[in-house]
Amino acid sequence: MLKLTYTERSFYLECLSLSLEEWVTQRVILALRVGQSLCVEPSTASFLLPVDLPGVERLKSEVKRNDSEIMALSTCDSEYLEVTLQGSWLSNGSEEAVGVFVTTMSDRTEFFLQKIWQEAQACASAMSE
Questions:
Q1: Total-model pTM
Q2: I need a labelling partner for 50 at 20 to 30 A (CA). Which of 57, 83, 107, 116 fits?
Q3: Which domain holds residue 115?
């Protein structure tokens, strides 16, 4: 399962070994126990990746072969590729863009997408220094 945590300024992508159903169930139970509002709804999430990252072409072929109903890749411009995922958005129900997005795909694609995202983060950090 892929989990994207959106904050006010950024987001973090991670692979989890739990199934989507197990993770959402645990999150709902937590919200009930602490008295927190929780809204779960079908949604999409998007983020950008540099097109010149090693592995982008391999990601494109993985998506075509295994996960085209869950993930779409679109060229934004000469520098960036947009990754759009189908899944579920969990938040406190407010209009803020703060919450967690979860989805599930083939394990191979999830792992590979996380690896490419981490490389993009490392490149962005190196460029900002």
A1: 0.88
A2: 107
A3: 2-128
